[in-house]
Write a structure and sequence with these properties.
Pfam families: DUF4383. The chain is mostly helical and 155 residues long. The protein has four helices and three strands, in the order αβββααα.
Length: 155
C-alpha cells in the first residue's frame, strides 16, 4: 500500500497539530511583540530602554520589556509563521524555540540583576513564563503529525 500524499505546505493549508500549534505560538509572539510597543498596555512606556536592566517598562504591568525584547518577540513570531509552512520545520521551531526559552529561564535565574551580563530585562514573572513556554513549546513540538486519511507521518 502506498502512503497518502503529504498535504500541501503554505498558510492556506495549515493542517496537522504541529503546524497548527506553530501558527498559534508564532501569532502569540507577534501579538506580544506589538503590544510591547503600545502605551497603556505597556506601563511606564516612557521608561523603556533599548536593552539592559534599566528598562522599567512593564507589559501588562507584570513583565519587564525593552525595545530589543519586543523586537525579538516580533522576529520569533515571523520565523514561526515561515517555519509553520512545513511539518518538519514547524517541529524544529517548537522544540528548538522551547530549548531557547529553557536557556533563557536558566539565564534569568542565574544572572545577577544590574551586572554586565544582565542584557535582557528579566524579572521573576518573566522567568517563570519562560519556563512555562519552554515546557509547552517542547511538548507541542512532540505532538504526532498526521497525513491525509489519518495516517501518521514521519515529520
Amino acid at each position: 500500500m502506498t502512503p497518502a500524499p503529504e498535504q500541501p505546505d503554505g498558510p492556506a493549508a495549515v493542517s496537522g497539530p504541529v503546524r497548527q500549534a506553530t501558527y498559534v505560538v508564532a501569532t502569540a509572539f507577534l501579538v506580544i511583540g506589538v503590544l510591547g510597543f503600545v502605551p497603556g498596555v505597556t506601563a511606564e512606556y516612557d521608561e523603556m530602554r533599548f536593552a539592559g536592566p534599566d528598562s522599567n517598562a512593564q507589559l501588562f504591568e507584570l513583565f519587564t520589556v525593552s525595545i530589543l525584547h519586543n523586537v525579538v518577540h516580533l522576529v520569533f513570531g515571523v520565523v514561526g509563521i515561515v517555519m509553520a509552512r512545513g511539518a518538519r520545520p514547524a517541529r524544529i521551531y517548537l522544540i528548538v524555540g522551547g530549548l531557547i526559552y529553557l536557556l533563557l529561564f536558566i539565564y534569568g535565574m542565574l544572572v545577577e540583576r544590574g551586572s554586565d551580563a544582565d542584557i535582557v530585562p528579566l524579572d521573576e514573572a518573566s522567568n517563570w513564563l519562560h519556563l512555562g513556554l519552554a515546557i509547552a513549546m517542547v511538548l507541542l513540538g512532540l505532538l504526532p503529525s498526521t497525513r491525509r486519511g489519518g495516517h501518521r507521518a514521519a515529520g
